[in-house]
Amino acid sequence: MSTIVPATDLPAAEFTLADVTVESIEARVQSITASLDAARDTIAALAPKDRTVESTLLALHAALDAAAVDQVFATFPSMVHADADVRSASAAAKTTLKQAFDAAYADARVFAALEAVEAEVRNRNDTVLSRLYDQTMALHRANGLAIADPDQCADYTKTRGEIAHLEQKYTQTINEDTTTLDFNGDALRGCSDRYLSGLDRTGDGMYVVTTKAPDYLAVMQTCAVLATRKAMYTAYNARCKANLAVLADMVAARQKAANLAGYASHAHYRLSFNMAKSPDQLAFLDDLAVKLQPRREADMAQLQALKDADVDAPHGESVQPWDIAYYVAVLKKTRYAIDDDVIAQYFPLERVLNATLAIYATMFDLEFVAAENMPKWHADVRAYTVYRGSTKELVGHFYLDLHPRPGKYGHQCVVPLMPATLCPDGTRTLPIAANIGNMTKATPGRPALLRFSEARTFFHECGHVMHCLLTQSDHALHAWSWSVNPYPGGVEIDFLELPSQMLENWLYDAQVLAQMTSHVDTGAALPGAEQKTLAALRRVNGGYAYTRQLFMSLYDLAIHAPGFAEGDQDTIIAKLASTWADLQRSVNGTEMIDGTWPYAAWYHPPPGTMPGSYSYLYSEVASHDCFPEVMRRAGPQGSLDPAVSREYAEKILVPGATQSGDAMLRNYLGRELSDVPFLHHVLGDDE
Fold first, then answer.
1. How far apart are CA 366 and CA 26, in angstroms?
2. Would you say 244 and 570 are in contact if contact means Cβ atoms under 8 Å apart?
3. Would residue 201 count as lying in a domain?
């Protein structure tokens, strides 16, 4: 449940960006770097007789944990702050702090001290402690200590710093993009009056359409004017041209660093930390791409028939990329009697938000309290304090920052602001998360109505919030995190999406949809027939959708494969384009149009976890295997049986990274993972 109580009755979250300035960011970076350096020096100075688990391994992580808690005030403003100078300083801070954390895991003196306590670690028979030790040593080796030659090691460290700078530069260029297009009313024919009424207007009455997700999807799915859709598609995929050179340099630097560390490629290096372990384990992606071609061809044939019947479409013209979302919407209306704009009237944002929290509260024994006392960085932001429902124990806090604005991070994600850690004095740092979205916003006289895809995304992202809040860890390395932060931590990247992907299944349950929906005018829940149709629509156009996901995953692997980064910058830029075009054509059956470079405004390449785009499919294999287990174990309450959801939480969410993803899945399933349910979902008939 979600309630509002007086601010005086709520604990403070101890998180604020109110006093953040360029100067405060720079000072905090210096302080964090100095504290990490001091911890390394202290451990290095220990006499052999004084080297213990506490004085080495745990002392190192005490410093790392404190730095992980402190760094957010320097790095998070890059994603949300109103001041461009602050965002720029914050982006630079993330690069510097990434190097500082890497250095903390790359000190030969500390590594030697840690080697000396291995026997003591093993003798304690503590599996979590042993995992912490093994991961710490692996990070030291990955950060260059496995390189014997000193000059080569120095070159490796320098190159890693260059990579961090390029990654942040690439991401910040996307965040700062403000591409818009102006259209008159005729050019937006088909778009709803409700949508148009929320757009800004120019002095001469033109509608200003941004390339942020709510506007882009609305136009691509509902605008009947082909020329407008093409213009929108072209502008969207021609953003951030400056990132072409950045991406080329990033790919080259990653390849160089991987080779210096003894790996065949950056793909081999990164995957060694994941459940997949090596590119060889991802051969199923190529196989799946072949198997999906009949489904993709059938999907495109359906859309082609709709375009052929469209009197406004050029006679005999094949379906183009800017047509697909539009004719999928037409297909839903004509074959399934589903109109996305009509369905959106059942998903007012406030209803979806409150119902999502109520459902997760029931599932995981939580209570969410709207925290008016927590400072917020923007008027759009909402804050919540979270308690254990049955015991009223304080669990943590989270923020919702759901709407687009200039300079803000332009995608959807959850940022772990505070990791769950155990402090040396025995107190705990409670987790704090921020759900950063770019969803439809209410305007005066116009409530925010979410397309079902937006409601699903919100439910999914809140699943990450639950994972962050429920993780029980003593150290930042084992807390819920990912590469949005400069410190290493969290589950394997190809496990990260599993919990939220699995939780999406709840959204297709009739009980859940009844709670989630309330017609904006009548208050009625979504009728049962439409509920069933939404479930059926999960696989509509699945051949196209999955081959699109596949070609982008294969692209990510290809540009990080051995030999790709050979040549100068111009050569690599040309290969970035030709590789995307070839894979889009061969796997997805569509063409990359001239004058566009979609990979330059794609959020996935920059994170240090890449290549990781495959991880969505890899995680989905597990999610489709887990959900049938939930339903098999559930009682009469079905998916809302709290006993089964809490078992899932205890075995999949609570451990965080104290266990490997493989171990958690075996523990939950009671067997090895099977891909049969996933293949049935992906390759089965649409009916």
1. 38
2. no
3. yes
200-201/207-210 β-pairing: antiparallel
Q: In angstroms, rounded to a whole number, what is the distance separating the alpha carbons of residues 437 and 458? A: 8
**Residues 591 and 584 sit within 8 Å (Cβ to Cβ):** yes
Residues 184 and 148 in one domain: no
Q: Which two tokens stand for residue 604?
A: 């996935």
How confident is the model over 604-646, as pLDDT tens digits? 665 555 667 888 888 988 999 999 999 999 988 888 899 999 9
Whether 85 and 125 map to the same domain: the answer is yes
- Is the CB of residue 450 less than 8 Å from the CB of residue 344? yes
**Residue 77, both tokens:** 């403003």
pTM of the model: 0.89
Structure tokens given for 22: 């360029």
- Closest to 655 (Cα-Cα) out of 395, 461, 474: 474
Could you tell me if 101 and 486 are in contact, meaning their C-beta atoms sit under 8 angstroms apart? Answer: yes
- Positive or negative, the CA dihedral 514, 515, 518, 524 is positive
Question: Do 418 and 72 touch, CB atoms closer than 8 A?
Answer: yes
Residues 6 or more apart in contact with residue 503 via CB below 8 angstroms: 459, 460, 463, 466
Structure-token pair, residue 373? 């006392």
Question: Both 37 and 167 in a single domain?
Answer: yes
Residue 48, classified by CB atoms within 10 Å of its CB into exposed (0-12), middle (13-18) or buried (19+), is exposed
pLDDT tens-digit series, residues 103-122: 999 999 999 999 999 999 99
Same domain, 83 and 213: no
Provide the number of structural domains found in the chain: 2
Bond preceding residue 611 cis, omega within 30 of 0: yes
Least reliable range by pLDDT among 149-158, 607-616, 642-651: 607-616
Calculate Rg over the CA atoms of the chain. 25
Rounded CA-CA distance 554/302 in Å is 26
